[in-house]
Design a protein that fits this description.
The chain is an alpha+beta fold. The chain has three domains: 8-201, 2-Layer Sandwich (Heat Shock Protein 90); 205-326, Ribosomal Protein S5, domain 2; 334-578, 2-Layer Sandwich (formyl-coa transferase, domain 3). It contains 18 helices and 25 strands. The radius of gyration is 29 Å and the shape is elongated. Mean pLDDT is 80; it is low at 330-383 and 502-510. Keywords: DNA damage, DNA repair, Endonuclease, Hydrolase, Nuclease.
């Protein structure tokens, strides 16, 4: 095949792939243009997850009429004058690619007016080809209307995710920019329904209250640190408020949302020894530094940066966050176990003095692993556990029990997860799951992206005994919960349903119910660090013995470790080493 020069249209579509990956990419580029234009109000409207329509309107400085055609050309920008400016970028946009890239893969209409123009100018572009400008009536500012995204690139359209996933990405993007620019009034609506609206009064904590609820916003700790030419501000969660993933760690650098693994790790390291394994803080922090100290020209999406002195940045963020945490030392509160744990053991199920060996009866000590405690994989091959005699609790985390062939260390949280999960699924399959109405319905606000996800799952929640209904924008009302969880926190149960989902997760339909049940049981189970009475420990052992899969929690983590008598004797030198 001979070497040919690509046509301008094809070259534009290829180049657009670096900037316009999905509808959220379009929203990001247009919102950043509005912020660079000193807009005080930014209104975003989308339909069909951005496939059919994306419209971003602002009241910024606008584009002069004679520069409108030039604004749609590739590499045309007002934010750079020379190559030296690349090393001290102070604006969000600077590449001059956004409008041209969007226009090459969609039908775009650009309308803008400055204070000096008597009328607004409008230009329509389809597939990269612009029509003649026309004069229209419009207020000061710019409106960019993007219709039928990827209409001329069907392969790109085909590989977009489901609507709920694409909407959540846009929700997450606008949520972050609303936090970073509290002086700007953001309005966002999807399919005619408002999902986000901020006042623009500069109160960042008020925006956090809108997104996460008043109680969470009130508990967040403020970070305010200055060191020479570095400044870190924002909010972080106390050690009592955590998430199961890093998704709620938001980092802005000079007003730009970035995804920097190093800074995220520094923030997490500030909580070292303070959080349980697998738990992460909630944070929205904003780092300000000299533009010459950071390179934002790393990738066309401008979401990655490089620092002149990365070690200094890491240390500054870690020290600043750690100092804020230590400045506030919350008084530990005594936890109360959910009533679902403490149920009577069915008659005839007491401990047999003769030690029923169950499925381990035929195993001889000599067949045990000669190394150390059995691995989770080995435990999974044994369907049941023997009857156990309670010894006590250690560290308010583990229960010690004696079995017919050694010692068992039981993780009380994982064990209770398993008990609740099997009861919930058994009641679900037998159609005996009952609900308990709340005396006072609980109102739960959620961030827009989580509200979008929860709306898709309300039908499944009803199958598990939850009565949840929308109660305004991004707000839900819990009217009833499963009787199994009576006495527990309905708001915590609802939030846990959405916080663990991955951004692109598309679970099989038949697995969704199990995943939801496992998440709820994880939140409702007793926690590590919670002191249990002797009766409560005994009850948990009896309930675990009756489970079909007592060796692991619903998420696959071991509930217990078995230390055989044979292994203990070798460790104490009562038998010769092998």
């Amino acid at each position: 095949m001979p070497i040919l020069i690509l046509s301008p249209d094809l070259a534009s579509q290829i180049a657009a792939g670096e900037v316009v990956e999905r509808p959220a990419s379009v929203v990001k580029e247009l919102v950043e243009n509005s912020l660079d234009a000193d807009a005080k109000t930014v209104t975003v409207t989308i339909e069909e997850a951005g496939r059919r329509l994306i419209e971003v309107a602002d009241d910024g400085s606008g584009i002069p009429a004679d520069e409108m055609p030039l604004a749609l050309e590739r590499h045309a920008t007002s934010k750079l004058l020379s190559a030296d400016d690349l090393f001290r970028i102070a604006t969000l946009g600077f590449r001059g690619e956004a409008l041209a890239s969007i226009a090459s893969v969609a039908r775009l209409t650009l309308t803008s007016r400055t204070d000096n123009d008597e009328a607004a100018t409008r230009i329509r572009v389809e597939g990269g080809k612009a029509e003649e400008p026309e004069q229209v009536g419009a207020p000061r500012g710019t409106v960019v209307r993007v219709e039928n995204l990827f209409y001329n690139v069907p392969a790109r359209l085909k590989f977009l995710k489901k609507d709920v996933t694409e909407r959540r990405r846009i929700d997450a993007l606008l949520t972050r920019y609303a936090l970073a620019y509290p002086d700007v009034r953001f309005k966002f609506s999807q399919n005619g329904q408002a999902t986000l609206q901020t006042s623009g009064n500069g109160d960042r904590r008020a925006i956090l209250a809108t997104l996460y609820g008043i109680e969470i916003a009130k508990d967040l700790l403020e970070v305010n640190a200055v060191e020479e030419d570095l400044e870190l501000t924002g909010f972080i969660s106390p050690t009592s408020l955590t998430r199961s993933n890093r998704r709620d760690i938001i980092i802005f650098i000079n007003g730009r949302w970035v995804q920097d693994i190093s800074l995220s790790t520094a923030l997490i390291q500030a909580y070292h020894t303070m959080l349980m394994v697998g738990r992460y803080p909630l944070a929205a922090v904003f780092l300000e530094l000299e533009p010459a100290s950071v390179d934002v020209n790393v990738h066309p999406t401008k979401s990655e940066v490089r620092f002149q002195d990365p070690q200094r940045m890491f240390s500054f963020v870690q020290r600043s966050v750690r100092k804020a945490i230590l400045a506030y030392t919350p008084v530990p509160q005594m936890g109360i176990a959910p009533p679902a744990l403490w149920t009577e053991r069915p008659s005839g199920s007491g401990i047999d003095p003769a030690w029923g060996f169950a499925s381990e009866a035929n195993q001889e000590p000599g067949n045990q692993d000669s190394g150390s405690a059995q691995s989770p994989e080995t435990l999974d091959t044994i369907p049941t556990i023997p009857l156990l005699r309670l010894v006590g609790q250690i560290g308010s985390v583990y229960i010690i029990a004696e079995g017919p062939d050694g010692l068992y260390l039981i993780d009380q949280h994982a064990a209770h997860e398993r008990v609740l999960f099997e009861r919930l699924m058994a009641q679900r399959q037998a159609n005996t799951l009952s609900s308990q109405s709340l005396l006072q319905p609980v109102v739960v606000p959620l961030p827009p992206e989580q509200a979008t996800l929860l709306n898709e799952q309300i039908g499944i929640l009803q199958k598990f005994g939850f009565e949840v209904e929308p109660f305004g924008p991004n707000t839900f009302q819990v009217r009833a919960i499963p009787s199994l969880f009576s006495g527990s926190d309905p708001a915590a149960a609802l939030r846990v349903l959405v916080e663990d989902f991955e951004g692109d997760e598309t679970p099989l339909q038949e697995k969704i119910e199990e995943r939801i049940a496992a998440r709820v049981c994880k939140r409702m189970a007793v926690k590590g660090g919670q002191t249990l009475s002797t009766d409560e420990q005994e009850s948990l052992l009896r309930d675990l013995e009756s489970c079909e899969s007592p060796r692991t929690c619903p998420h696959g983590r071991p509930t217990m470790i078995h230390l055989s008598v044979d292994m203990l004797e070798r460790q104490f030198g009562r038998r010769g080493a092998r």
